[in-house]
Amino acid sequence: MGQAPVPGWCRALPRPEYKSLARVPANDGWFEVYRVAPDTFAIYEPHQSEETISYLIVGRTRAMLFDTGMGIGNLRGLTDELTQLPVVVVNSHTHNDHVGNNWQFDTVYSMDTSFSRRNAQGSREAAQAEIQRGETCGDLPAGFDPTAYATRPWKITSYVHDGEWIDLGGRRLQIIATPGHTPDAISLFEPEDGLLFTGDTFYPGTIWLYRPETDLAAYDRSVRRLAALAPQVKRVLGAHNVPAASPTVLPQLVVAFETVRAGKVAPEPAGKGKVTYKVGDISFLMGAP
Ligand SMILES: [Zn+2]
Question: Mind listing the domains of the chain with CATH numbers?
Fold first, then answer.
């Protein structure tokens, strides 16, 4: 890897927003950890182009891990450094870049969808695409075997449903079903601290809405639902690029998406069969019309 040219996305790092975040030391150089709220850690993977962010949310009796990232670094080793409490994994959705380390954890809550169950069987193809030339930057972790890299299967220990509360001891988070990006996409809402974890339904960056499992009408309903929460939200925490956004993005997201759906935005070509729609600071990668 040492001699490979540095890809463009990586040359743009670190993203300036990280300067104002509190970095937490971690032994594993694959991850960067930031304290984004009290007992709330963003676990960022800046050496892979997805720039995936998982969140460890620590209560008094247990901790929740909202996504497990790429499955390239040893996430379990990292969470063991950050908390001694039992950890329950909940996924924002089951795309490969959010479930890669699920296999390392004993307790995984899942939405009750066939899409989730199929993904829990693991896969190799999507994982392999993530480590092709230009997709990683810097050294892969010692002992990582690129030829063997795959999303390893995991066991779903129980199902969660829209509106359900998960109690971590002194902290309660509500599951908000936000299907659209995938059928099993959820957000997590913590009214006490005004935190809204949005997975891939919103993150600062071009939002991917082109895959076959994406449902644009469902996405439209989901972003409206999140926008209705905006008055109670202090911070929006998405699953890629930067672990903080203002709640003002939520109504903006609704307007941007409606404008696109109404055919009022000119598409820009973005590779085979795909186009980008830009509305102000918000953009969507979608199937070509
Ligand atoms: Zn996704």
Answer: 8-205+235-247 (3.60.15.10)
Instruction: List, as one string, the DSSP characters of the chain.
Output: -TTSPPPHHHHTPSPGGGGGSEEE--S-TT-EEEEEETTEEEEE-TTBTT-BEEEEEE-SS-EEEE--TTSSS-HHHHHHHH--S-EEEE-S---HHHHTTGGG-SEEEEES-HHHHHHTT-BSHHHHHTTSTTTB-SPPPTT--GGG--B------EEE-TT-EEE-SS-EEEEEE--SSSTT-EEEEETTTTEEEEETTS-SSPEEE-STT--HHHHHHHHHHHHHHGGG-SEEEESBS-S-B-TTHHHHHHHHHHHHHTT-S--EE-STTEEEEEETTEEEEEE--
- Cα–ligand 1 centroid distance for 93 (angstroms): 7
Question: Which residues, in sequence order, are bridge partners of residue 284?
Answer: 207, 277
What are 81-109's pLDDT values in tens digits?
A: 999 999 999 999 999 999 999 999 999 99
Cα of 132 vs centre of ligand 1, distance in Å, is 18
Mean pLDDT of 53-80: 98
CA 48 – ligand 1 centroid, Å:
15
Residues with a beta carbon under 5 angstroms from ion ligand 1? 95, 200
- Amino acid 1: pLDDT: 47
